[in-house]
Amino acid sequence: MPRQGLTSARVSAAAAELADSVGLSRLTVAAVARHFGVSDAALYVHVRSRDALIEHVAVRAAATFADALALAVAGRAGRQALIGFADAWRAFAVSHPGQYAATQLHLPPEVGTRSAGHLRMIELSYAMLRGYGLDEPALTDAMRFVRSTFHGFASLQTVDGFGHPRAVDASWQSILDAVHTTLNNWPTRKQEQQ
């Protein structure tokens, strides 16, 4: 019988917070059980395994991440949408490193295709890039470029990977200018064939 007050939603929320504080790789069912002061067995009523726990964190985090991205791009287009999107990406990744890591995992199809947050993140990403007039396959190539850039920067910032005295925010702004310029001048198939 489930412990009174302990719900799947509360377990997922606590797991997400723990992922941010201890790191996703160190998140376990036992750690969440300790958080609630219950036995591991009491938690298995709400989550069947560590993998399932990580999946719950990923789905929950993706919804929060998608909300932040949507708010950041609402009513914006082109460069302003890119900046809002990028700043929201970086802020989420740096403020919630464990949850962000969970959103980057490859989930089983039965989980990923039912995760509204993951689907919204994809839609928002492509919608922001369509403002640059890109069509497939350039749209997917540009998305991989943007995702790699933002992910790399945020991941390095999270581990204090920038040792140069130049302000990190100044570098970020320069990078966003470069990304905007690149997207405005993205090669199309017609250009590549000339």
UniProtKB/TrEMBL annotation:
**Which keywords, in A-to-Z order, does the entry hold?**
DNA-binding, Transcription, Transcription regulation
- The residues that make up the annotated DNA-binding region are 28-47
Q: Which domain of life is it from?
A: Bacteria
The segment(s) forming the HTH tetR-type domain are 5-65
Pfam families of this UniProt entry? Answer: TetR_C_33 (PF13305), TetR_N (PF00440)
Name the record gives this protein: TetR/AcrR family transcriptional regulator
Top-down, what is the taxonomic lineage of the species of origin?
Bacteria, Bacillati, Actinomycetota, Actinomycetes, Micromonosporales
